Every structure is written in C-alpha cells, then in structure tokens.
Backbone:
C-alpha cells in the first residue's frame, strides 16, 4: 500500500511556475505573466508551452526562455500525469546548461526535474551548484531541502527549510515546513503550516489546490474525516474536477465503507490523471469490497504504469517495492527492489519499505531493525504503526505488537480499507492470547 501522501514528498513540484514572475528577460518577449496561468482554463498551459517553444526557436541563445520552457513541461507533466513531458524538459534544460553551466534558473529546473524522477542525489548536487552561484534565490533551497529529506538528511533539511522560510514565506516554504513537522510527529504543527501555505496561495490555481488537498490528507491522517472531506470539497469548488481532490474524497468514502461511491470517485480521478497512487487506491477499494478480480486488474495496470515511468527516467523502485510487498506474489522480488531503493533513498520511507519487504520474506529480525529505523523521527503515521505491530507480533513480542497496533487504531481508525480489519483482528488476538502467529 502506497502511503496516502507519498507524492507530498516533492513539495517543490507544486511551485514549478513561480519562476515566471521573476525572470524578467522572458517576460519582455510578450508572453503573458504567471498570474494568467490557471489550470481551470482548459488549454492554457498548452498555449504557454507553444509560446515558449516559439521564443526558443527564434532566440536559441535566450537561456531564460529555455528554462521557462523546461518549467512549463514539468508543469504539464504535473497536470496530466504524463511522464513523457519530463524527457522534453530534460532536453531543453540540458540545451541551456550546455550553453551556460552556471545558468541558475536552468540548474533549478534541472534539480526540480531530478526530484520528479526520484533522482535525489542528482537533485542535491544541482541545488548545491545553484546555491554556490546565487545563494539569494529561495527556490534553490527548496530543491536542496526536498533532496535532503529523501536522502535521510533530516537535520540539514530542517535548517535548509528554515532558511527558505526566512527568505520568502510562501506556499513553497510553508508546505515544506509542514512536511518536516509531519515527519517529526507534529501533526497539529503540520496542519498549521499547510494552512498557511494555502492562505499564501500559489502562482496557479492548481498549486494552491494541491496545498489544500495536502491539508485534507493531514486531517485524514489524524482520523478527522469531517475536516478532511470538507477540505477536499472546497478544493473541488475552487478547481472543479481536480483529480487529487477527487481521490481524497474517494479515500474518505472507502474509509467509511461506501465502496461503490469510492470506486466511482477513483474512476473519475484516474480518468483525469492516471497516477499509480489513484489506481492503487481503486484496487484496494475493490479488494475491500470483496471484488478480487477487479482489484487484480488495477494492480496489473499499476505495474504497467510503473514500467512507463521507468522508461521515462523515473526511479520508481521504492514505490514499486512497497506495492509489490503489499499486493505482489513474489516477496523476494519485492525485497530486491526494496534493498536497491534503500541504498539510494536511506530515509525513513526507505527503511519502512525495506522492513515490510523483509517481513514478507519471513526475515522478522531484520524487519524489526528496519521498522525501528523508520520510527526514529517519531512520525505519527497509522500505517507505519500497523506495520510495526505486525512485525513485532511475528517476532513473538506481544507487548510491542499490542502497543503499535493500539496506536495505529487510536491515531486513525480509518487508515486503510484493507488493513484496518487486519489490525483489529490482530490486536484482539494479541490481547486475548498473546502472539499466535503473523498476519497473512
């Protein structure tokens, strides 16, 4: 099961067009400025892409135009879910950096692209290069902080994010502060910071509603379905048909056992933006509704989508490892993916994924070591607690199993349409008779 908000990690991708309001050279070319870009206006981003392409064609030495075209392609990938746009962004950004390897906007764009592709060491190197050239651009620190988090450099990331907030308190810096607080177990503080991000607003409607949906996810993480649903619905009022908000409502419906409604909402989200996380949510809803064949079809689609992502340069090993550990039939293959991913992303999410893959292969001792590593920041995540409880139970540690399973259900009794019932059954068994085996 992919966590509700694994795509939140790359907070910087929510701000990809903010650069439009700062690159004066390109604005002189007559292309409309950033505030005109609204996802709610069909075809607007396509017109901007065409405009940037024309400027690059006419002025091949205009590096700002190259950078802006690269950013526009990244935003196009973000709004459509089509990873093929990353290759286009790479081509135009590389062209700019071949002409001037010190062009800061292109370095930031290349760093953001590396983040989108989960190439976090490359992103960190690009961000550091940009900072060495111009340490007064706040977006540089966003690239660096996102990479640091994924590489497990949490103390450094907190310092970097604080620098960004001090330089420019806006949606980009507040949303990163929110994620840092969430990782460190401060859900109330995370909600406060994300609410500030929403109030600050972004350069596009989509950016603002992305932040609002993350706010809904934070409410859901606490089991507050009322405020979560209210937040998702408000997002849909502001940006009708927004796929992330539709998926958020689908999660709420699934958590409440309204499976037909959840299936319909997930279907709408997937139709608008075919992202693996939406398809996984749909598959798990089918599974919870007792429709395993329908679930299996969705899971096969996830595998095909991840192959497409990999073909477009996205390192999806961590997400695919977690998915296969949850839904696959080959635990050893999932473990191989998880080990490879953990080497490249040695943070708490990498440790959690590796722990779960180890558990699925029956290596409970090493699974326990890795799940404790995943818990080290104090993150308040019911699914993480559930995994810790199941692993402890498999080891025969009924005290730890009861503690973690209880915390999972107390924090968020709706954390998964598939695993909640498992957690309740396991907790009842542990309480009644101690450890009697592991969950399937």
Residues:
């Amino acid at each position: 099961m992919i966590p509700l908000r694994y795509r939140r990690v790359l907070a910087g991708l929510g701000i990809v067009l903010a650069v439009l309001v700062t690159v004066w050279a390109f604005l002189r070319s007559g292309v409309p400025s950033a505030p005109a870009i609204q996802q709610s206006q069909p075809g607007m981003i396509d017109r901007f892409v065409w405009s940037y392409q024309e400027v690059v064609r006419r002025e091949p030495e205009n590096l700002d135009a190259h950078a802006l075209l690269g950013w526009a392609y990244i935003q196009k990938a973000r709004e459509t879910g089509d990873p093929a746009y990353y290759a286009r962004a790479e081509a135009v950004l590389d062209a700019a950096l071949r002409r001037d390897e010190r062009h800061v906007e292109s370095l930031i764009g290349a760093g953001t692209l590396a983040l989108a592709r989960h190439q976090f060491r490359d992103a960190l190197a690009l961000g550091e290069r940009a900072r060495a050239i111009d340490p007064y651009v706040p977006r540089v620190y966003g690239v660096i902080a996102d990479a640091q988090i994924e590489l497990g450099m949490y103390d450094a990331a907190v310092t970097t994010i604080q620098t960004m907030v001090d330089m420019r308190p806006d949606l980009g810096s507040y949303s990163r502060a929110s994620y840092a607080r969430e990782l460190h177990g401060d859900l109330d503080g995370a909600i406060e910071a994300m609410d500030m991000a929403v109030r600050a607003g972004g350069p596009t409607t989509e950016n603002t509603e992305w932040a609002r949906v993350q706010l809904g996810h934070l409410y859901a993480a606490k089991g507050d379905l009322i405020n979560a649903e209210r937040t998702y619905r408000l997002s849909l009022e502001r940006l009708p048909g927004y796929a992330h908000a539709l998926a958020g409502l689908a999660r709420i419906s699934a958590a409440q056992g309204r499976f037909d409604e959840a299936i319909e909402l997930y279907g709408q989200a997937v139709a608008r933006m075919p992202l693996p996380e939406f398809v996984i949510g749909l598959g798990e809803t089918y599974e919870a509704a007792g429709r395993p064949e329908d679930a299996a079809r969705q899971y096969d689609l996830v595998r095909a989508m991840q192959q497409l992502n990999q073909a477009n340069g996205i390192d999806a090993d961590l997400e695919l490892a977690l998915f296969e550990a949850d839904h696959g039939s080959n635990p050893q293959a999932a473990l191989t993916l998880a080990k490879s991913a953990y080497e490249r992303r040695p943070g708490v999410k990498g440790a959690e994924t590796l722990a779960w893959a180890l558990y699925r292969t029956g290596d409970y001792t090493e699974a326990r070591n890795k799940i404790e590593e995943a818990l080290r920041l104090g993150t308040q995540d019911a699914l993480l607690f559930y995994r810790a409880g199941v692993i402890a139970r498999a080891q025969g540690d009924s005290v730890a199993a009861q503690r973690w399973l209880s915390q999972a259900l107390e924090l968020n009794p709706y954390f998964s349409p598939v695993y909640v019932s498992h957690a309740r059954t396991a907790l009842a068994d542990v309480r009644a008779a101690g450890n009697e085996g592991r969950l399937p």
Summary: The chain is about 70% helix and 0% strand. The chain has two domains: 6-240, 331-433. The radius of gyration is 22 Å. The CA atoms of residues 45 and 319 lie 29 Å apart.
